[in-house]
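Treating backbone geometry as a discrete language has practical consequences that deserve illustration. The sequence in question and its structure tokens are set out directly beneath this paragraph.
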Amino acid sequence: MAAGRQDQRAQPTGRRDQHTQPTGRHDRRTQPTGRVVFVSAGPGAADLITLRGARALGRADVVLADALADPALRELAPQAQWLLVGKRGFEHSAKQTEINALLVKAAQSHAVVVRLKGGDASVFGRLE
């Protein structure tokens, strides 16, 4: 942060207007939502994962893991349900449409879902 520059984050005022009134079914206090986090497992060894990736695994309810992700990463998310959905040449693997459906279904059930990709998720994760 530049010297003399202050943090510009919005601060809550305690006031509500037409844009902040709870709307019933979309009120986050009564309707918790799940989310999907894409995590890069790194170039191989489990200890090469980023701190942010490790924290995401620690909060995960469901992990959809790539075949290239180090199995030792399970130690970071023992509480999670692990689904192996990675692709390997000439071996059985889940289709991308099936993986996408699993991600959505788990998130809709209010789960924190991690899609754990070997390597760099932004390159190999089909993120568009």
Notes: The first helix runs from residue 51 to 59. The chain has a mean pLDDT of 78. The first strand starts at residue 35 and ends at 40. The chain is about 20% helix and 15% strand.
